[in-house]
Each structure stands twice: as structure tokens, then as C-alpha cells.
Amino acid sequence: MPEITLSYQMLALVGVAAYLLGSVPFGIVIARLFGLGDLRKIGSGNIGATNVLRTGNKLAAFLTLVLDAGKGGIAVLVARAFFGSEDAAQLAGLAAFLGHLFPVYLGFKGGKGVATFLGTVLALAWPVGLAACATWLCVAVAFRYSSVAALAAVASLPVWAMNLGHGKMLILSIVLMLLVYVRHWENIQRLKRGEETKIGGSK
């Protein structure tokens, strides 16, 4: 855990600003710009890039992925640039992530946070972020389940953080991991029943 160097008032300001940024539902915005309709009424109803991809528009899905990852990364980088402290950077990353999961603009019904998680971690410590991305990719290729890849990536994060010299991220890593697992609870249940859809559409 990083040393607390900012006042609680400044940390609260950082948290609120990052949360509002994280709350921006880029999937819904992109879907409407591309004339794809209300993303919440398509496929799984999720607001993330995976559900945008179900519309068949790969460009829209890619843009959603980049923007969802970017809002986590930008929150971290701006907080670090303005305040020069890791406590502000970590808080900004967590707040942006919570904004994506529970966006105020959508009645606190948001996405599952995988892209925002990866963007946040890459900005906080790029070696750890790259390791988490590599974990996601390897598991996705091996098992062809996006949800399994996400769960593996977040579960590996505390291990990567400790082994790559970023122990101050340990508590944040565990919090992010638990939040992603909570948001993937339905996916976990479908996996148990053998009903989870694989990447490409099959079960």
C-alpha cells in the first residue's frame, strides 16, 4: 500500500473526478454513434466491448475496448502527473474502475470491468499490466472463454505485483480481483453448468 501523502480532501476530489470519468459508458456511446441501437438490449446487455462485438461491428468493439481501458489509464496518469504521488494514482485507478462497474449515469448498472482493469494496471505499473494481459491472452487462446481469461488475469495480478517489484499494489490488486470476481458471478455459474459461450459463439 502506498504512503498517504495527500490530504483527505484532495484524495476525495481525485476519487470523485476519476469515478465520474470511469462512469462514462463508452460502449453505449459507440453503439449509438455506429447506429447499432441500445447496447443494453443486445446480446448479454453488458456495456463492454465483448457485447459490442456481438453486433458484428469489429471497429465499434475495438473502439469500446480502447476507450474503456483508456479511462482507467488516463485517470491514473492524470492523478500521478498532477499530484506526483502513488496514493492519488492508485485511488484514481480504483475510482475509475468502480465508475465503470457502477456508473452513476446508468443507475449504477455497469460493465464487468476487464478492459478498465487492464488499462488501470498498465498505467500503474506497465510490467505488471503486460503480465496480466499476457495471462489473459494465453488463457483465452487455450480455453476460448473470455470470462475464464479475465478471471485468470485478475487472479494472477497479486502474484505479478509481488514478483515484479510492485508490492505497494498488493492491496489494490486484491480489491480489483475480488470486484471482478463479483461482477463475473453469473459467468462462473454458467461455467459450472457448461452453458458459458466461448469466444466465437459456441458453448
Features:
about 200 residues; mainly alpha; about 0% strand; globular
Describe this structure in words.
The structure is a single chain. Helix content is 69%, strand content 0%. The chain is globular, with a radius of gyration of 17 Å.
Gist of the model:
With 203 residues, this protein is mainly α. The protein is built from ten helices and no strands. The mean pLDDT is 91.
Count the beta strands: 0
Q: What is the count of helical runs?
A: 10
Strand content: under 5%
Q: Return residue spans where pLDDT drops below 50 for at least 5 consecutive residues.
A: none
Topology record:
Blueprint: H1 8-22, H2 26-33, H3 49-53, H4 58-83, H5 86-101, H6 114-124, H7 126-143, H8 146-163, H9 170-183, H10 185-193
